TrEMBL record:
Protein's name in the database: Fic family protein
Superkingdom of this protein's organism: Bacteria
Entries under PROSITE patterns matching the protein: FIDO (PS51459)
Molecular function GO terms recorded: ATP binding
Organism (species): Nocardioides albertanoniae
Record has Chaperone as a keyword: no
SUPFAM superfamilies for this protein: Fic-like
Keywords, in A-Z order: ATP-binding, Nucleotide-binding
PANTHER family: FIDO DOMAIN-CONTAINING PROTEIN (PTHR13504:SF38), FIDO DOMAIN-CONTAINING PROTEIN DDB_G0283145 (PTHR13504)
Ranges for domain Fido: 167-316
UniProt key word Isomerase: no
Positions of ATP binding: 200-212, 257-264
Length: 432
């Protein structure tokens, strides 16, 4: 059988087939030289607590992938991919320049779309209403809480990169703590790098037939600090830098759980630190979620010594997310204008006018949020007036703790994700 991109993940884990794993992937845009592939080391392994099938309990060695140190490496990109990164970053900066300062609501909706779709890559899904309740701290299911926590983790990493102009291991740990602080099963390990061997794919009980076995736990901190040094450089294309930081982080896999969501949040942290965008975080994960297999295969290409596939995929995904975000900005402006007419044209500065502005940023809210953000003494009266005008709808199953939603904005959140995914399915870049 001819090797394709999907079975490379397995081949790359076997030293005897490593030469095959390094062959260029069919349909990859270019092949590149000068980027070191992972090396593979066989180490002793034994389960701490015997469990699972007999083959898992008897496993005595494991082959781990050792990422190269990248802090000072040059990034080898051929002209077509380099041009893609330049164009993608330019389009993102233009969107940010035009809408970033004036539309705070656009950034919040983009962040929520990104967190939702990043969670979907990990098969964590919930309704927008449940997600909104989780953001408000009101009872919601575990998936919704997880999605809300992913939003907080991403916001933290972006904020830290924006204010300090640095990517730090401490910020990564804090974001991981945000991600799992409300998870009763994972809270004990929240904000800590792993101290045990982990793996991706294969058996649930031991790294038998795993798709990727990251480096040993005692090497994690060194690899992270090396990655952080690379992330803090200013002599690279921001898009390429973000893609490589993400791929390196996923290869290190420094946590027991949450690596994918933290790793994708790092993309935005790098772009914000490099000022590719000063205010907005376009929903890149919405493009990646449409092709999980191609996305994971691009990470495997990176481990085999090619940066071109993941860089091209991120550049194309960013361009698509940026293009569709322009449409969302225009939709939000139209929705806001229609609300003003439906509400009888409230005067600027009035409680109703300010609440309409807030809804483009927070389309799921309760009375407490309105009081905290706007200082309105009687928020229920203003909310009721907008509900009568058809701007707001009370969410179902919130009788005890009422929550209202702005259906027009939530519809745009869903449509933004759907449009990005539709365009991304036609991407010609990366493994197929």
């Amino acid at each position: 059988m001819a090797e394709n991109c999907d079975n490379r993940a397995v081949a790359a884990q076997r030293p005897q087939t490593y030469a095959a794993a390094r062959r260029p992937c069919k349909d990859a845009p270019v092949t590149d030289a000068g980027w070191p592939p992972h090396t593979y080391v066989t180490r002793p392994y034994r389960q701490r607590i015997p469990r699972g099938p007999r083959a898992d309990r008897l496993l005595r060695e494991v082959t781990v992938a050792m990422p190269a140190r990248i802090a000072e490496l040059e990034v080898p990109l051929e002209r077509p991919v380099a041009a893609m990164t330049t164009a993608s970053a330019g389009a993102l900066r233009h969107l940010d320049l035009v809408h970033g300062r004036t539309m705070a609501g656009l950034n919040h909706l983009q962040l929520r779309t990104e967190a939702i779709d990043s969670s979907k890559i990990e098969h964590v899904e919930a309704s927008l209403a449940d997600y909104g309740r989780a953001l408000l701290g009101i009872g919601a299911n575990a998936s919704a809480v997880s999605m809300a926590s992913a939003t907080q983790a991403m916001e933290r990493l972006i904020r830290e990169a924006d204010t300090t102009r640095k990517i730090t291991s401490d910020a990564i740990l804090q974001a991981h703590r945000d991600l799992f602080a409300r998870d009763p099963d994972e809270a004990a390990g929240a904000g800590r790098f792993r101290t045990v061997q982990n793996w991706v794919g294969g058996s649930d009980y031991a790294p038998r037939d795993a798709l990727h076995v990251p480096p040993p736990p005692e090497t994690v901190l060194g690899h992270i600090e090396d990655m952080v040094a690379f992330a803090n450089r200013d002599d690279l294309s921001p898009i390429a830098q973000a893609a490589i930081v993400h791929a390196q982080f996923e290869s290190i896999h420094p946590f027991i759980d949450g690596n994918g969501r933290i790793g994708r949040a790092l993309i935005h942290a790098v772009l914000r630190r490099r000022r590719a965008s000063r205010h907005l975080a376009v929903p890149i994960a919405s493009a990646l979620v449409s092709h999980r297999d191609r996305y994971f295969a691009a990470l495997n290409d990176y481990r085999a010594g090619s940066v071109a596939t993941i860089v091209a995929m991120l550049a194309a995904s960013t361009t698509i997310a940026t293009t569709e975000s322009w449409k969302t900005a225009e939709t939000l402006e139209s929705v806001r204008a229609s609300w003003g007419e439906a509400a009888g044209g409230p005067r600027p500065g009035s409680a109703a006018y300010r609440l309409l502005d807030l809804l483009t940023e927070e389309p799921i809210l309760n009375a407490r949020l309105v009081t905290e953000r706007l200082g309105i003494e009687d928020p229920e009266a203003t909310i009721d007036a907008l509900e009568r005008a058809g701007v707001l709808t009370r969410a179902r199953r919130t009788r005890r703790s009422p929550v209202w939603i702005a259906p027009a904005v939530l519809a745009e959140v869903e449509d933004l994700s759907a449009r990005i995914q539709l365009q991304a399915r036609q991407l010609p870049y990366g493994p197929r």
